[in-house]
Sequence to fold (288 residues):
Amino acid sequence: MYSEQKLSMLALSLIFPAASSLFHEIYSHFGNCCEMLENLANDKKTNLPDFLKQRVMSFDINYAKDIYTYCENNGIQIITIECEEYPLRLKEIDCPPSVLYCIGNLSSLKVQKSVAVVGARKACDYSVKIAEVFSRSLTENGISVISGFANGIDTAAHKACLNSGGITVAVLGCGIDCDYPKGKSDLKRLIAQNGAVISEYPPLTRPAPENFRIRNRIIAGLSKAILVVQAGRKSGSLNTVSHGLEQGKDIYVVPPRDILSPDYVGQSLLLKDGAQAVYSPHDILINI
Fold:
């Protein structure tokens, strides 16, 4: 049996692109996803650009029903922005996801003391060790760890938190059932046992470069503060920090291991811009 509210919001999330400001503009006018979908379908009270009009006209509600059924059959929870379970912290960011797909414990999305630990996929051994030490200490002090489930720093942070018996949340840039990064399905299941794995993309969505930059606003949004462990000039971590600054989050940076290496330029830039250097987990713990 379908929930009309969830099905309508699911349909809207499939029509509008992720992080669509136009969706939120129209939604704020109606304040109800069922009414919004009905008016879009009948071309009433909306002023959509042509490409969205085409998407509305060609949209088949059975597509949304298929995803809904797939989620029910595979233990994936659908949380819409109208649900009580939706994290309040995310509602406060620009263009919050209209729908979250989740496996795990929904209460872990509402933990007030949480830190995003982010950094390079191709991280050096030193940075991986730093991520492990900081994540373990945060966990032991009752702070949840948020990260993006990528190789390198993200994986080190998730694992250190799990090994310390803590709560960690992984925010994906692909569908929850997509095997990406390849071979990490077991880690995903372990995270879901105490924490949660979430995505705003339908379950089998393949990863795409733009997806990861879009999802970074969620990593920042769920966190009280952001810790950057290793970052080059073009690191996605800088994008996460940018969202964090817009959201008023505290930014912490591990000083670069080598100021002459391009692998750490992002850290130097953040420190120049006023981010707080950290030399031990205590530097974060005293402010959380």
Notes: The first helix runs from residue 4 to 15. The CA atoms of residues 28 and 36 lie 10 Å apart. The mean pLDDT is 96.
